[in-house]
Amino acid sequence: MARIGSAVVAGFLLMNGPVTGQDVTEPALKAAFIYNFAKFTEWPAALAQEPFVLCVVGDTAVREALARAVQDRVLGGQQLRVSFVAPGDAPPKCRLLYISSVTTRQAATLLAGVRDMPVLTMSDLDGFTDLGGIARLFFESGRMRFVVNVASADRAHLHISGRLLILGK
């Protein structure tokens, strides 16, 4: 059975720089979580020369917020690039795939397309980790929370930092 951790994390703890209440929209908060998951994940060394693309399926507001959040940022010596993918399209070579505003069937198809590949899959869809996704974001009592399926991360040959996972203990 997959070890699943969840945590209550305030978005302002994950974002770099000062944040005021009016600056934090739901898409901006999700973008901060997505960026920080990327920041606290290790990919196989063989990917070091490949572009660092963060793909967003189905949610243009999150894509736009993520593009703003990662603008001029570098991870692992690589500039981050955000790509929008339509639900029916095959995603380009992504390091991170955020799936939202699609059906469970569409999400399952997208996950099947990257199964066993070193792609950090994230979503806000109910049951996403049960489908084999790695991380699911959700709101509970007005706070952003997340669930991580560590077995799915292991299968994708990704290592999510204990600094992030410990928040669920």
Short description:
This protein has 169 residues and is an alpha/beta fold.
Can you describe this structure?
This protein is of the alpha/beta class. The chain has a single domain, classed as Rossmann fold, CATH 3.40.50. The chain contains 6 helices and 10 strands; from the N terminus they run βααββαβββαβββαβα. An 8-stranded mixed sheet has the order 1-9-8-7-6-3-5-4, sandwiched between helices. Strands 2-10 form a two-stranded antiparallel ribbon.
Characterize the overall form: globular
Major beta sheet, strand line-up = 1-9-8-7-6-3-5-4
Strands, count: 10
* CATH-defined topology: Rossmann fold
Query: Measured on Cα atoms, how large is the radius of gyration?
Result: 15 Å
Strand content: 25-35%
SSE topology sketch:
Blueprint: E1 4-8, H1 11-14, H2 26-39, E2 41-42, E3 52-57, H3 60-70, E4 74-75, E5 78-85, E6 96-99, H4 104-114, E7 120-123, E8 135-140, E9 143-149, H5 150-155, E10 159-160, H6 162-165
Parallel strand pairs: 3-5, 3-6, 6-7, 7-8
Antiparallel strand pairs: 1-9, 2-10, 4-5, 8-9
Helix pairs in contact: 2-3
Relevant terms:
10 strands; Rossmann fold; eight-stranded mixed sheet; disordered N terminus; 169 residues; 27% strand; alpha/beta
